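TASK: fixed-backbone design
INPUT:
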């Protein structure tokens, strides 16, 4: 019997009871406790039921005191005639003071985390004994630990009341914010307005034919997000080296012709601009990985270790490798690989709870049409990409195909799919000498 008790999962019955007692004694404690704890953080089922009742009542702005809580327990069918009333009163009697509720909550959270950690360790051990490959076992272990570190225990069924509470919390955050859009800004106002910015857990696809400026657009977005969000931006570049990306960023930020930077023929004024641009870029937390043979699992593992992550950018999809599928030039197999990669990217976006912007090449199908504007069917291996992406953006420049076009250096950003709202086309200014995009009415003037 003693051995069985010793093997009980970590918990503190006293801290759980004192937390609930504080909420019943002083309802002003309730918002603070609910912000820190979830029902599954309580070890004893009876305590969990009482907390869940208070949680639901708080979500519906109902008055919380011993009488109303007991009445709500009756309605929910968890009231025991012989014990419930006595236990609720006992919770209030044994609580020393509601003033120390923060300390009680901390103990409950710590014990809950230890329990979840113990469960994760058991699951990891079971995965290993089942004969899983080392790479898969490591990825599963990292995923479980990451979820715990970021306040998410064992995933399971989630009551609607808890979902609605999270929704209201998010709405309150948005109402207090000065930002007109809920997501990260791209730096392009019209695009932000149409797609509501880059939102958490979204997979955003940016596609075009080669030479249209996909990488430039991605770097513009990375710069703006890094400057104004205060978050870390991670960019995986499978095509260009980090030095090439650094050169482009310097050109964009300093407004020095990219060709000048490539040749190194710079005036004193140019060097002054570079110094100022470098000072600005040094303040941005942009992490670059230029490993050309990286998988989604590798990316996910690296991003899990980044604190304050705000945005992930991948350049580009067709260069990525699948972790499990043998690489082949066979078209059907390639479609299967892309399907696996895009699904993994969507899962990564949800797990990391950040927007993931992935660049993609288009097939040559549009080259044969008189109207060369891209369509969803032009996406290479399009089925899975179109299905998994929350937003699909295409870049198109008429002067790329027609040098005599009136729309010289005007780009179209076509929103072909948008789970957050409308689709449409936005005109942008293309600044080739600085490898940058801007709103159409924006012009750069030399001092």
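OUTPUT:
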């Amino acid at each position: 019997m003693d051995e069985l008790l010793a093997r009980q999962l970590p918990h503190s019955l006293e801290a759980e009871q004192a937390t609930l007692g504080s909420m019943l004694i002083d309802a002003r404690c309730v918002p603070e406790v609910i912000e820190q704890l979830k029902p599954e953080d309580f070890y004893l089922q009876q305590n969990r039921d009482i907390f869940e009742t208070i949680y639901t009542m708080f979500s519906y702005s109902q008055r919380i005191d011993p009488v109303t809580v007991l009445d709500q327990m009756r309605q929910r069918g968890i009231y025991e005639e012989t014990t419930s009333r006595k236990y609720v009163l006992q919770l209030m009697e044994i609580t020393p003071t509601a003033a120390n509720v923060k300390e009680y909550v901390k103990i409950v959270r710590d014990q809950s985390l230890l329990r979840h950690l113990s469960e994760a360790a058991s699951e990891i051990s079971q995965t290993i004994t089942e004969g899983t490959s080392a790479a898969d076992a490591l990825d599963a272990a990292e995923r479980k630990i990451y979820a715990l570190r970021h306040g998410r225990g064992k995933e399971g069924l989630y009551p609607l009341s808890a979902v609605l509470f999270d929704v209201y919390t998010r709405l309150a955050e948005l109402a207090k914010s000065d930002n007109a859009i809920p997501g990260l800004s791209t730096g392009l106002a019209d695009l932000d307005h149409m797609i509501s910015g880059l939102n958490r857990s979204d997979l955003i696809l940016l596609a075009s034919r080669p030479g249209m400026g996909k990488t430039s657009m991605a770097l513009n977005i990375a710069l703006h997000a890094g400057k104004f969000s205060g978050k870390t931006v991670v960019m995986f570049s499978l095509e260009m080296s980090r030095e090439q990306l650094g050169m482009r960023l310097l050109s964009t930020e300093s407004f020095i012709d990219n060709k000048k930077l490539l040749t190194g023929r710079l005036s004193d004024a140019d060097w002054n601009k570079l110094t100022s641009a470098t000072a600005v870029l040094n303040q941005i937390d942009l992490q670059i990985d230029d490993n050309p043979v990286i998988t989604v699992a590798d990316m996910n593992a690296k991003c899990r270790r980044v604190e304050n992550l705000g945005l992930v950018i991948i350049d580009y999809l067709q260069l990525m490798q699948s972790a499990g599928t043998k690489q082949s030039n066979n078209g059907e197999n390639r479609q299967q690989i892309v399907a696996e990669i895009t699904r993994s990217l969507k899962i990564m976006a949800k797990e990391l709870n950040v927007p993931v912007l992935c660049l993609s090449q288009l097939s040559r199908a549009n080259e044969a049409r008189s109207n060369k504007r891209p369509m969803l069917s032009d996406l290479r291996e399009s089925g899975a990409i179109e299905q998994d992406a929350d937003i699909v953006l295409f870049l198109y420049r008429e002067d790329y195909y027609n040098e005599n076009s009136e729309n010289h250096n005007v780009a179209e950003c076509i929103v072909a799919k948008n789970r957050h709202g409308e689709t449409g086309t936005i005109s942008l200014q293309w600044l080739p000498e600085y490898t940058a995009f801007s709103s159409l009415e924006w012009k750069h003037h030399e001092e």
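COMMENT: The longest strand covers residues 410-418.
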